[in-house]
Amino acid sequence: IFLLTLSKNARLGLILLSTALLIFTIIPFWITWTNELPAIITNLHGDITGYQQLYYLRTHTRASPWFVGAIIGYLIARLKFDKLQNQLKMNKALLWGIWLVVLTLIPVCIFVGHDSLRSEYYNKYGNAFYNSLLRPTWAVCIGWIAFACSNGYGGIINTLLSLPIFQILSRFTYSVYLLHVTMLYMIIYASKTPAYFSFFHVAYSFWGITMMALAVSMFWVLAFESPVIIIEKRLLSKSQSRKLDLGQHLAELAVGL
Prior knowledge:
The protein is mainly α. The chain has 2 domains: about 1-160, no CATH class; about 165-255, no CATH class. Helices cover about 75% and strands about 0% of the residues. It has helices at about 1-10, 10-35, 50-55, 65-80, 90-110, 125-150, 155-160, 165-170, 175-190, 200-255.
């Protein structure tokens, strides 16, 4: 509905997306507030079961980043297809200010609250704001990086992200994301005794699972994702060629008449 409206009426579509973003940012705040849910899953004093069932696994509490991505993606596509990228001029002070805010918010999203929100004392405001604002804020930061890099304002970050190694890894990262949770469940449920915690053990587990997920993702991409992409390209190319042939045929008929 949102994307269809956006394609028909851009202004109305952006209004709907912005309204939905606001609504789906308020919803997790309200659910966290009313149920006194923890904001961090490693909080041993919180209701982890309620956190999983009422917040973490629910679409309506995790939807806000999608709307952020839809808005920013539309702006990027609109500038590209309308060939307005060269006309986009940003003041250097504003540009540096946005980059400063974004590069500050990214570590804030990662590290903020890990001490204050894991204590026995329940911070109602802190947990509610964390669950409602963390993910859309992260999405805005990543969206800005994509927007800036696609419009020539990425600088060294665009150069770094354009390295060939990242182009290769980008083919497998989504599969790693999909597969690693299953691997974690398999390892946890196969354990017969509690694990002894140490930094070495955590590092060993992290890199072991990462490498295993990366290896399986290579097979996953080659077996499932790549064939589907090839089939899709073949079908689209045939459809486009048919349209071109039909257009050429109609043009020849018009000339003949």
